[in-house]
Amino acid sequence: MTTQRMRAAVHTELPGPVSRTFIAEQAAVESSARTYPRHTPIAIAGGSGSYLTDVDGNRFLDFLSGAGVLALGHDHPELIAAAARQLGVATQLLDFPTGAKQEFTRALRAKLPAGLRDRARIHFCGPTGADAVDAAIKLCKTYTGRGEVVAFHGGFHGSTQSTIALTGLRAPKEHLQNLAPAAFFPYSYCFRCPLDLTPDSCAINCARYLANLLDDPNGGVRKPAAVIMELVQGEGGVIPARPEFVSQIRDITRTHDIPLVVDEIQTGGGRTGTWYAFEQFGIEPDVIVSSKAIGGGHPLSVIIYDERMDGWAAGAHTGTFRGNQLAFAAGAALMRVVERDDVLGNVRVVGEFLRDGLDRLAQRFGCLADVRGRGLMLGVEIAPLDGMPASKVSRQIHQAALRRGLLYELAGRDDRVARFLPPLNLSLDEAAEALELFAEAVAVTEQAVAAS
Ligand code: PLP
Predict the structure, then answer these.
(1) Residue 144 has pLDDT above 70, yes or no
(2) Which of 20, 66, 179, 420 is geometrically suited to a Cys-Cys bond with 165, CB 3.0 to 4.6 A?
(3) pTM above 0.85?
């Protein structure tokens, strides 16, 4: 007997009648700063594997994965079992050593390339990515005695006061005074080069701009405490850095004795096809920031850094929720499954399949301007269509996809990028289904725009 594969199925308008009541109650009591249900109007009942079900019984293929947290999709039995076992032992234990923590730490250290592994120190931070970015910057400031931080156009490092200061997004900080000092430099966003150059002849001027400035006694910028970068910008629009850009930034930071912090909060945990994205760029960072997927679906964040920097004092970065035992147990289980089931191999194979499919769609539909990404972190930049601005086209495709049962998030400048973050154990059939749903969404959007 063959069992039928689950598929996306939406049988109500969106929001459905039950979701509508949840959303109305939420709007009445929650903050105006809430985000997701504004553009994805569903209330969620639960999930299974790569699918999410709303309270009206609609099923969505989930290419959002809790913003990249749910590496093995919803409801993974082994991750649930690991967390459930731990629930009966202990839950929150500050930074005391425990069996669960030891197992997690050993497994995470084993994920580091040899060499780096031998020199690595780990600090467990509060549960969010932003807290770990904050810790990384404090560490670098303490180590160097310097104050400023260099970040890149389009980068995203969090929403707290200190991390928003390092984030490219202008709108959320427009009304915030006295943010920490940060200097922004061009990133290798070749599809829309910030220097108006083309990759064949640019000589990686985006990176050289930073080098020139640091070398120039009249450059006006003090030597920073850190350079922080994503290797594939996520919120910025799924922009993989050019390898030459990354190696030049590494050379520049080394020459000037500036710690290089790689923000692997979204890319880490196997998302790009290697456990950390930096492995694909042939560099060794000074500090790695990791969170999201590594806690097996539970909140956890860490920084991993070179031991030469380990000069900060006891209590330099504390936090009540640094000892999430459920996350340690589920995170260790995640790493076991990833190893045993060759999940990274799956990321590469299914990622390539999805990317090829998107490339084919880009040949068919004029509004799909650029397909990019690594592994299962993929994005499609949308172009204007018959005079309609790209951001509007992108939002229409997004809504059309949702109505067909494909859930994903928009990213990039003015939401112009469709961003796909499916589970890392996505099957080829599920990837094919996503391509089908996305193609339908683009086709109906093109038809609607042509008819308007
Ligand atoms: N850095 C990157 C690259 C991210 O993608 C995110 C979140 O999306 C953060 C930092 C902030 O993490 P958190 O939302 O857990 O604070």
Answers:
(1) yes
(2) 179
(3) yes
